[in-house]
Design a protein that fits this description.
The chain is α/β, with parallel strands linked by helices. It has 3 domains: 69 residues, Orthogonal Bundle (Arc Repressor Mutant, subunit A), CATH 1.10.10.10; 102 residues, D-Maltodextrin-Binding Protein, domain 2; 101 residues, D-Maltodextrin-Binding Protein, domain 2. Helix content is 44%, strand content 23%. The strands form 4 sheets. The protein has a 5-stranded mixed beta sheet with strand order 4-3-5-13-6, with helices on both faces. β9, α7 and β10 form a beta-alpha-beta unit. α1 packs across α3, α1 packs across α4 and α2 crosses α3. The radius of gyration is 23 Å and the shape is globular.
Amino acid sequence: MHIDSLKYFVDVVQEKSISKVAQKMHISQSALSQHIQKLEEDFGHKLLLRSNKGVEVTEIGEIVLKYSNNIMKNYEKMFHDINAHEHDNNSIYINGTSALVAYSLPCMIYKMKKKFPNFDFQMSVSTVQQTITDIQNDICDFGFIDIKPDEKYNLYSYIMGKEKVVLIAPPKYNIPDRIKLKDLLNLEMINCTMNTQTCDYLNKELGKIHKSLKDLKIIFNVDSLSAVKSSVTNGHGVAFAPYESIKHELYEKTVKIIEIEDINLDYDIFLVSKKISDLSKAAKESLEYLIEIGRKSFC
């Protein structure tokens, strides 16, 4: 089994087309098909179902895809680390949720670079589960997530602080600056699905008044904070968002904050890594510095 075959397989699954991948990779369709066929022979299972509509991944193919993605990440990281070693460069890989990477972590990276100018910091957007998997597989050194990792993962975790969550509305929206939870049921809402913590906390609060998320007037669900903010500023409804992500909009007065009485949707931000004793010298120094400067290192 060759690494190229796994890469071709991943690309075909993503494109759902052998011909498109063959064209992109500048190889013949027959050669690409032989790579896939050899993988199927190695694993003893069909990985793809072929039809006139393209290709679909099988259940066994899904398993191979999951591990192939990790193998490819480790393969690329191996070359990067070899290059870093040749140039006496310490590389630190950091994962974070989309909101944190976009709005909170850049200032942290800046401060870390000032502290360790010879370190090379690489930051990537990742889900909570993918961050945990990447740490376990040495793809990233540490990450920032919004859920305390289960003890079964045997990871180090440290609470960096809390993410403040606020309800935002257009400035001219006909709504008081302070409302009760039951009033939320009458408002049109855009739901950001990228933060499950906010949804879970809100659902618990609604349960206290015998309601749930299903009772909200959700116009649409979206996994992009930019789309949420754009919808709110254009007057399409209200939405919950991390406070750090709407500072600019507050300054420009394109949104306003609506306070909801007696509820708190703020959640903890966890810094996670392997056990400190298992970290490289550069990763250990970076982690210890992050703990030292704490939440104030965020934007």
